[in-house]
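Every protein is a chain of amino acids, and every chain bends into a shape of its own. The protein below has been through that process, and both of its lines are reproduced in full.
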Amino acid sequence: MVVGKTENTEEALDVASPVGVITPRTELFSLSGVKFFNYNWNGAAAFKTCSHCFHDAATDSGGRTITSWDLHIDEATVTRRVQYSTPFRTIFFDKDGTLTGKGANSWFLPYWKHLLQPECTQEDALGGITCDGTVEARRVAFHSMPSNFIG
């Protein structure tokens, strides 16, 4: 169980935007059976993406996939699901729909206009885009490109 704000919370937290879990900048991270409560002020969120990627010089291209299932996100007290951080590309694969509310094998993605497909919905309040299980989201990376590669 991850709790954001309680009666014991320091006053300094009132001006902050804490998060419950910061995801890694590696593949194969899974999260299940976790319950989130009391992330409903400022920019507080259940998740923040890409640990140690907090600035553009972190040299990480992002697009890592986080797998989740069997989550409980208290809708009354958790208003933002994901707070995306640099490089704004983490992909959440939701095996049972408990993160997205879109059913099994759904996706939670960062907001990029090209990801707004008919199967996907922009979820500003939740922090990104949700897509149903009829689509797949994958990381695309290019390696060993010539130094003059543009685009």
